């Protein structure tokens, strides 16, 4: 990701710098976003980012617990 595509420091982001994609769910195992959401985050409207942020906690259940255990 280029500096130009990085979110500004004031932009809310769920990223925790654990950037590993789960092959089964297609979600990042750190923030639970889809790859297209990660890639387009800085270009999304604040409302679109907020909608994704609200959905993230429920996405955790889409990744098998044994995979997530390595980050606990």
Structure, explained:
- The protein contains three helices and no strands.
- It has 72 residues and is mostly helical.
- It is elongated and about 35 Å long.
- The chain has helices spanning 35-40, 46-59, 65-68.
- The longest helix has 14 residues, at 46-59.
- It has one domain.
Core attributes:
single chain, 72 residues, 3 helices, mainly alpha
Q: Given the C-alpha coordinates, what overall shape results?
A: elongated
Number of domains: 1
Largest sheet: none
User: How many whole angstroms does the radius of gyration measure?
Assistant: 12 Å
- Element pattern in H and E: HHH
Tally of individual helices: 3
Unreliable runs: none
Number of strands: 0
Could you give the distance between the termini? Answer: 26 Å
Instruction: Provide the structure class.
Output: mainly alpha
The level of helicity is 25-40%
Mean pLDDT across residues: 90
Strand residues, percent? under 5%
